[in-house]
Known about the structure:
The complex is a heterodimer. Chain A is mainly β. Chain A is 0% helix and 48% strand. Chain A contains no helices and eleven strands. The N and C termini of chain A lie far apart (35 Å). By secondary structure, chain B is mainly β. In chain B, a hairpin with a 6-residue loop joins strand 9 (83-91) and strand 10 (98-99). Chain B is globular.
Amino acid sequence: NAGVTQxxxxxxxxxxxxxxxxxxxxxxxxxxxxxxxxxxxxxxxIYYSVGAGITDKGEVPNGYNVSxxxxxxxxxxxxxxxxxxxxxxxxxxxxxRVSNQPQHxxxxxxxxxx
Amino acid sequence: xxxxxxxxxxxxxxxxxxxTINCSYSVGISALHWLQQHPxxxxxxxxxxxxxxxxxxxxxxxINIQEKHSxxxxxxxxxxxxxxxxxxVSPWGAQKLVFGQGTRLTINP
Lengths: 114, 109
C-alpha cells in the first residue's frame, strides 16, 4: 500500500532558487492538503484542493503555488526560496471533508533554505 | 491565544503508567482528530470523533462537546508509545483542520 508519497525526502536550496515538492496518492481521494511544520508550532495549512482542477489558499499561502491537474497528484511549487520557508512539509489526503474522514499523511519533505 | 491548546507540552513517564493528554479548543467543531507523529517524522491518524468515546487497543479518546475538551488516554504505556501526539479540530463549515502544538511523550523502560 503506497498511500501518500512525497518526494524528495530532503532538500537544500539556495535563496532565490525554485523547486517543486511532489505529492501523489493512490487511494482515489478527492481532498488533498499541503502543510508546513515549524519547530514548536502546530501544522499550518498552505493550500488545499477538493478535487482535480480546484485549489484554494490555506492559512500561509504566500510564496507557494499549487496545481491539481489529476486526482492523484498535488505538487507544491516554491518560486523564489526564502529562509523563512525552511520547514518540514507534509502532504495529506482524505476521501471527503475532514469533518467526516481521517487524513492520510505522507512522510514529509525536510527543506532547508540557505 | 491558539484555537487549539494541548497540555502538557512534554510528558515523561515510566513504562506501565497510565497516560492522559488533554486538548481544549475555542471554536465550534464538527470533528476532533488525534494524530501520532513518530520520531522519524511520519504522522498517522489515531482517532476521529465528534462525541463520546472511542477505543483502539490501549488507546482511548474522549470528547466533551459542551466543555470543548478532549482527552487521549494510554493504558499500560510502553516505550514504543513515545511520540508526539497532536490534537486537531475541524471547525464548523471549514474544509480544514486546525492543529494544536503537540504533546511530546517519552516512556522510559
